């Protein structure tokens, strides 16, 4: 045995491990979950993400929130994000990834309960009361108290569009921690970003102290992919993230939710005109893809720091059952935005890409430099004192 070669190999591996540790220790970790789509892609990705974290750390109790410094979500993605970040009262997440996805799956008929049978209408509306009840159940503590935006294990960002100010409004734990005027019940935050026009009425909500009000519709109209909002929040929030000076200090995982049903194989009719519904679907998918394109350019120097998981074909025909859906999503080959437009098909599958990301994610451990109750300096809000 050549001891010199063995020694060199050992030291090379130790050096790689040390360099990897140095590279990741100070990075702020961002998780972003899209709205819209079917929810299958994000749900499958989250379940696999938590399974991989537990596998690579050897900790069966590890949760996604342990390894991210901020979680953002829109629409159905916001509901998933809030369930993963909600505090159970002991400082631990209220739901595992599998429990959160399972809740949405089993309560889907309550969350999206048809208000009209649709016989006389092409598109029926959903019952807001039914969704309210399901969301309250999800975010209620054992003592019966409803959780607020402030009561989350990690910083949370959820966008909606406020009809009163005709501008986006982003709910954040940072603002909620600073003032009760920006603290809202968590179920209402999710309800606001899920208020899709045409399916639900605009949802009116007020802060805990009653000083801030908002008439909300679906956050997906303006931020279906909230990754850019999360990145911007971290870059400009020096109180909570003092070590972040640029994107080189970030580690970002962005989960798509699959293209909308109407966007799959979208074709123009013989008249070469798009219907109104098709235009809406193009806008929602286009906004999400534009954000991905911009972030891809921002991280082009090191694409391992920004990973986007999105479907390129989604579920094959005939696939039935949760486990089968998860397997189908994870075995699809990943796609990546190119610097000057377009996409390329990667050799790695979505599951392999998540596994590679987790390898970098867990190197720094679950420790975080964030304060127990993150907050940030805020500007005067046009919504205040309404």
TrEMBL record:
PROSITE patterns: PNPLA (PS51635). Keywords: Hydrolase, Lipid degradation, Lipid metabolism. Residues 31-231 form the PNPLA domain. It comes from the Eukaryota. A motif (DGA/G) lies at residues 218-220. Transmembrane segments: none annotated. It is an enzyme of class 3 (hydrolase). Its EC number is 3.1.1.-. InterPro entries: Acyl_Trfase/lysoPLipase, PNPLA_dom. GO terms for molecular function: hydrolase activity. GO terms for biological process: lipid catabolic process. Lipolytic acyl hydrolase (LAH). Belongs to the patatin family. The nitrogen atoms of the two glycine residues in the GGXR motif define the oxyanion hole, and stabilize the oxyanion that forms during the nucleophilic attack by the catalytic serine during substrate cleavage. This is Patatin. It comes from Tripterygium wilfordii.
């Amino acid at each position: 045995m050549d001891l010199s070669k063995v020694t060199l190999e050992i030291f090379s591996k130790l050096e790689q491990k040390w360099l990897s540790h140095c590279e990741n220790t100070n990075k702020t970790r961002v998780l972003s979950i899209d709205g819209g789509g079917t929810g299958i892609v994000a749900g499958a990705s989250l379940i696999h993400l938590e399974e991989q974290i537990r596998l690579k750390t050897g900790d069966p109790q590890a949760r996604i929130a342990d390894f991210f410094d901020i979680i953002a979500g829109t629409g159905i993605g916001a509901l998933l994000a809030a369930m993963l970040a909600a505090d159970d009262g002991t400082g631990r997440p209220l739901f595992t990834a599998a429990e959160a996805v399972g809740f949405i799956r089993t309560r889907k008929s309550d969350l999206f309960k048809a208000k009209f049978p649709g016989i006389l209408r092409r598109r029926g509306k959903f019952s807001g009361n039914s969704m309210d009840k399901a969301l309250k159940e999800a975010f209620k503590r054992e003592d019966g108290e409803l959780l607020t935006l402030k009561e989350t294990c990690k910083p949370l960002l959820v966008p909606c569009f406020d009809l009163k100010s005709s501008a986006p409004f982003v709910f954040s734990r940072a603002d909620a921690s600073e003032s009760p005027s920006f603290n809202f019940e968590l179920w209402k935050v999710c309800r606001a970003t899920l208020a899709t026009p045409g399916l639900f009425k605009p949802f009116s909500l007020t802060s805990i102290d009653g000083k801030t009000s908002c008439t909300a519709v679906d956050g997906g109209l303006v931020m279906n992919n909230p990754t850019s909002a999360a990145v911007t929040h971290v870059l400009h929030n020096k109180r909570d993230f003092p070590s972040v000076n640029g994107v080189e200090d970030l580690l970002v995982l962005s989960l798509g939710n699959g293209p909308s049903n109407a966007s799959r194989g979208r074709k123009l009719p013989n008249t070469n005109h798009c219907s109104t519904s098709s235009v809406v679907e193009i806008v929602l998918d286009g906004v999400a893809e534009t954000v991905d394109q911009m972030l891809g350019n921002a991280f082009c120097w090191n694409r391992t720091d920004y990973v986007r998981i999105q479907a390129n074909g989604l579920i094959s025909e005939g696939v039935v059952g949760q486990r089968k859906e998860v397997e189908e999503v994870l075995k699809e080959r990943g796609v990546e935005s190119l610097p000057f437009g377009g996409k390329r098909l990667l050799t790695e599958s979505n599951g392999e890409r998540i596994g590679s990301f987790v390898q970098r994610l867990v190197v720094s451990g679950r420790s975080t430099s964030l304060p127990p109750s993150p907050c940030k300096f805020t500007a005067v809000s046009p919504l205040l004192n309404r």
